[in-house]
Amino acid sequence: xxxxxxxxxxxxxxxxxxxxxxxxxxxxxxxxxxxxxxxxxxxxxxxxxxxxxxxxxxxxxxxxxxxxxxxxxxxxxxxxxxxxxxxxxxxxxxxxxxxxxxxxxxxxxxxxxxxxxxxxxxxxxxxxxxxxxxxxxxxxxxxxxxxxxxxxxxxxxxxxxxxxxxxxxxxxxxxxxxxxxxxxxxxxxxxxxxxxxxxxxxxxxxxxxxxxxxxxxxxxxxxxxxxxxxxxxxxxxxxxxxxxxxxxxxxxxxxxxxxxxxxxxxxxxxxxxxxxxxxxxxxxxxxxxxxxxxxxxxxxxxxxxxxxxxxxxxxxxxxxxxxxxxxxxxxxxxxxxxxxxxxxxxxxxxxxxxxxxxxxxxxxxxxxxxxxxxxxxxxxxxxxxxxxxxxxxxxxxxxxxxxxxxxxxxxxxxxxxxxxxxxxxxxxxxxxxxxxxxxxxxxxxxxxxxxxxxxxxxxxxxxxxxxxxxxxxxxxxxxxxxxxxxx
Length: 487
Ligand code: GLY
Ligand code: MN
Ligand code: MN
Hints:
Elements: E1 7-8, E2 17-18, H1 20-35, E3 43-47, H2 67-73, E4 81-85, E5 91-95, H3 102-105, H4 112-119, E6 123-126, H5 130-137, E7 142-143, E8 147-148, E9 155-156, E10 169-170, H6 174-183, H7 187-210, H8 217-232, E11 236-237, E12 242-245, E13 270-275, E14 277-279, E15 282-283, E16 286-291, H9 298-317, H10 324-341, H11 349-354, H12 357-361, E17 406-409, E18 412-414, H13 417-424, H14 435-441, E19 446-448, E20 451-455, E21 460-462, H15 470-478
Parallel strand pairs: 3-7, 5-6, 7-10
Antiparallel strand pairs: 1-2, 3-4, 4-5, 8-9, 11-14, 12-13, 13-16, 14-15, 17-20, 18-19, 20-21
Helix pairs in contact: 1-2, 1-6, 7-8, 7-15, 9-10
The structure holds glycine and manganese (II) ion (2 copies).
One manganese (II) ion binds at residues 285, 368, 408, 410, 450.
């Protein structure tokens, strides 16, 4: 439906995303390119995602828009192109020309005027008109998106269409500038990310209240997915839910097809729930860890409080100008201090830092930029190098914090056999590891505490709203309306 102030929403009770969010993103991009001296006659050309089918079948996957295109245009259908003239900031959308049969199987074919009203682009034409429109504009040159994602190593593929060889193209300038625009969130993007976070936070609390021994891990995954979809209209989650209990909580990316959240929860287990909803492409990424039976043992409490102290120390220190690798080190030092107090480690903190002892307990990075992608782009722009050190080399962001970034703070302590077994046999670690105590903790899994945090002008703001103190968690769990375990 056309709307005076076009919005995306799933209807009553869900968030209405104003399309002005994307118009503002386009304005920011054009302004940034002009500031880089790009010719006013240059035209940004982006190609949206295509509908895909499973393997060799005709079974269509549920379409999800490519993130750069989503940021720029907020279009929910496949097969679109979009253009922005750098000088004027004027924008065009190009919709696929659908066959008449489409209306039989998929519903009425939207006239272009309807797309124009839905997406608030200045003009909407058909994709087959793209070469002619670009020729009228001059488009000198066409700026295309080509660049490498620093987490996956995969390349963004530049837009292409039949006849593109008639236009001069520049595949260099656009990617780093568009990435920088995505790194700094606008007010409208922050509001949306905060809302998705609230929906996910509420779902985490609901799961926390329902957990009990006898359920399987996937029952909690199902509850989380149900809550965010039923209450928030979040049809996608930002990544596969990691719902590991007992030793599975130490498997960093548990929940994949080969380990499908299928263990039965036992009295005495810890449960690690790393789950986040997504809405209009915007992600959340939250981890809560707590005991299945609602009461921490003294050992679980010691490990949990080490991780919580690291999480809090980082959030207190975060502000513009602070280097993210220094925050990783701060989390590591805090964890080491607690593990010394807990009797697992001995020796000087700085000697352990130099020997990379923290890596044995937290092999992953402290956190990553988050936005349209859960691991958002922009962690290592040109000139920012990745540390080769154990632990730090897994950090997805190597830069200094800036106001408007949203980044996860997700320290953890895990007892991972694949790391501890060789470490306990390695004389290098002998001065630091209290072997019999470390062995006692093996098999107990791990703890991660993950918040999504906005960097503000003066510090930080936590968008995640879940119980974090041990006492608070135990209180919330005690109030839970626990359903009987499924047989
Ligand atoms: N859920 C994936 C991550 O925490 O990065
Ligand atoms: Mn996570
Ligand atoms: Mn994360």
